[in-house]
Amino acid sequence: MGNVYSVDDDGSTTPLERIRCKQEYSELHLLLEKNPDLLAGEQINPDDPRRWLLIASEMPVPDPNTGEDRWSIDLFLADQDATPTFVECKRFDDTRSRREVVAQMLDYAANGHFYWTKEQIRDYAEQICVKSGRSLEGAIAALAGSDGSVDGYFERIQDNLREGQLRLVFFLDESPMELRSLVDFLNKQMERTEVLLVEARQYKKDGLRVVVPTLFGYTEEARMVKRTVTVSRPSGKLWDADSFFDSTTAFAGAEVITALRTIHDKCLQMGGMVTWGKGGQGTFMFRHPGMCKNAIFAVRRDGTLNLKFGDLHGSPSVERFRDQLRDAAKAKLTARGYSWPENDYWTEVPWEFWGPIENDILDTVGTLISRTA
After folding, report:
1. Is 236 left (phi over 0), alpha (psi -120 to 50) or beta?
2. What angle do CA 290, 292, 297 make, to 5 degrees?
3. Quick one: which of 19, 27, 219, 366 is 20 to 30 A from 231 by CA?
4. Is residue 234 over pLDDT 50?
5. How far apart are the C-alpha atoms of 67 and 52, rounded to whole Å?
6. Which one, of 194, 214, 193, lies nearest residue 203 by Cα?
7. DSSP class of residue 286?
8. Does residue 131 or residue 224 have the better pLDDT?
9. Measuring CA to CA, how many Å separate 265 from each of 121, 123, 147, 258, 286?
10. What confidence tens digit (pLDDT) does each residue in 132-172 have?
11. CB proximity list for 236: less than 8 A, separation 6 or greater
């Protein structure tokens, strides 16, 4: 980018003095936190400019091994379509902007759905709104329209995290060529995740500070990659029993379909609630009103069972149920050759491991619920 000029009354021009970022936090992080429009939403999508809801500044990222907060994302935002947007602010002189921060952001993209639940994300957003003197309901209505449901909005954020439908943004005062090349490469290769770089060059004249945000990494070739991605069902529309089982034949064989119908029916027999997801994967979740508001497990139409240990918290009885279920499931599944993950917040188990012992697992869930609820 060349110089930026002001035009004087006589038609002559004066170049504005370039400001080099020295304090990353105050000159980039706080600037963007107070002015999210500097993320150049109109350049990201000229036909439907992105608008932003700030969810958290310094969003804590837990260590999956200990559960303690170990890292943080500079800024966590979402747009009007509930697309999670992670932003890292780095000054040009910070050499970590070359490689380390890229690896860090890719980790957040790959594991974000393990780190946070929709309830946690909503709590952070509510805290930000309280600080700014707004209601969360009003902020989402302004962002997503009068029909925007608060619960539905954060459900979509969670769905998008799990499907990898998100946006990674590097926000710098000036970008090194190697970082631009990395961003350009990643953005062309990643079908669902946008990887962008916004360069916010700053200038001053007569006490006036000027910021010029410029988007890099979203070439027309990269836009075409994103456009060609199709999901089997538009995000935001609820699945139901008919649409779920009608479409399952394209993903699974007869044995898996029978197991899915069995688990669906037994969930209801246990006095629980079956709720349906909105994402492209096709999911139903099992909740029990006597336990807690969060789901105990979810099942995808490809036969994957997701044991949602990370969502089971809030009271000693629920956490005791969670620990007992984890111990029992781990013993049963590892005996069948399943490799139990080190991070088991949300444990995904393919059908070939849980299907043959489905009744055993469901009986265990039912027994533990009867002791707890």
Report:
1. left
2. 100
3. 219
4. no
5. 29
6. 214
7. E
8. 131
9. 31, 33, 33, 11, 11
10. 888 888 888 888 764 457 888 898 898 888 888 889 999 99
11. 152, 156, 278
Give the DSSP letter string of 42-67: HHH-TTS----EEEEEEEEEE-TTT-
Name the phi and psi angles at 217, rounded to 5. Answer: 100, -10
The DSSP output letter for 237 is P
- What is the chain's length? 373
pLDDT tens track for 93-110? 666 556 677 887 888 777
CA 357-363-366 angle, to 5 degrees, is: 145
Task: Please state, in angstroms and rounded to a whole number, the distance separating the CA atoms of residues 186 and 183.
Answer: 5
By mean pLDDT, which of 19-23, 85-89, 114-118 is the weakest?
114-118
Percent of the chain with pLDDT strictly greater than 90: 31
Q: What angle do the packed helices 254-269 and 241-248 form, to 10 degrees?
A: 160
Helix (H) or strand (E) holding 203: strand 194-205
Q: Which three-class secondary structure state does DSSP give residue 86? A: strand
Q: How are strands ordered across the β-sheet holding 273-276?
A: 273-276, 283-287, 297-300, 305-307, 347-349
Pairing of strands 305-307, 347-349: antiparallel
What pLDDT shows up at residue 233? 41
Q: Give φ, ψ of 306 to 5 degrees.
A: -110, 105
Query: What is the distance between the alpha carbons of residues 373 and 367, in angstroms, rounded to a whole number?
Result: 10
Q: Give CA–CA dist 102/185, Å, rounded.
A: 12
Residue ranges of E strands in 79-153: 84-90
What's the one-letter identity of residue 236?
Answer: G
Q: What does the mean pLDDT of the chain come to?
A: 83
* Residue spans per domain, the chain: 5-227, 241-372
At 165, the amino acid letter reads Q
Q: How close are the terminal C-alpha atoms of the chain, in Å?
A: 63
**Spatial CB neighbours of 186, under 8 Å, sequence gap ≥ 6:** 102, 195
